[in-house]
Amino acid sequence: MEKDKKNPNHPRKGSRITVEPIRSEKDIKKIVRRLNDRPRDQLLFLMGINNGLRVGDLLKLKVGQVNHLSAGDTLTIKESKTQKDNVLAINKTVYKVLKQYLDANDLEDDDYLFSSRKGKNPLTIQTVNSMVKKWTDEVGLKENYGAHTLRKTFGYIQRTQFGVGFEVLAKRFNHSSPAVTMRYLGIHDKEVDGILRNEIG
Fold it and tell me: How many structural domains compose the chain?
């Protein structure tokens, strides 16, 4: 993929757009810290990288669907793209920022959780694309990033840091095969080779 020389964090017009996961937990932590004063954005980032759901499905969430949830709870949602049921999980990290966000804002049950500051409508995927590009650029990341980066980061970190198998991740992503998931996450050959150096016995 060719990139714009003026902005390496954006593909050249007309080129095939593939966004990357954030591969370093250090960079993830940097972004979380930078979003401390932007609770809505911090919640979107953390909910995205902790669930692996499509951003479009997160943007459809309404306050009334999540304001009663606690750490460890789940919410069944229907994916817009596949029309299949999937699960939004509220782990301790997500619960903490969700509670802070809800406590700090006077929101109604029918309000979108990630509403635009310009009205009652939810953020658009295009806006989230721009937001993620800005966040990654601010911490010095130079590849191409966008809204899909959040979903890919979930899978990448689950695979490389926690050792979750491609079969499990394929099921989570509703992919047709583990090979699709491997390509989707940008798992490079050298990273796969690395596991062969793990000594057993």
Answer: 1
Active site residue 81: yes
- Based on the residue annotation, tell me whether 38 is a catalytic residue of this protein: no
What is the enclosing helix (H) or strand (E) of 77?
Answer: strand 74-78
User: Domain of 183: which CATH number?
Assistant: 1.10.443.10
Q: Is residue 143 part of a domain?
A: yes
pLDDT tier at 128, thresholds 50, 70, 90? very high
Catalytic residue among 133, 148, 159, 172: 148
Say whether pLDDT at 159 is over 60.
yes
| 151 a catalytic residue | yes
Q: Is 68 a catalytic residue?
A: no
**Does residue 184 carry a catalytic annotation?**
yes
pLDDT tens digits, 52-107: 999 999 999 999 999 999 999 999 999 988 888 899 999 999 999 999 999 999 99
* CA 114 – CA 55 distance, rounded (Å): 11
**Catalytic option among 151, 152, 159, 172:** 151
- 23, 30, 40, 54: which one is catalytic? 54
Task: Report the distance separating Cα 201 and Cα 194, nearest Å.
Answer: 17
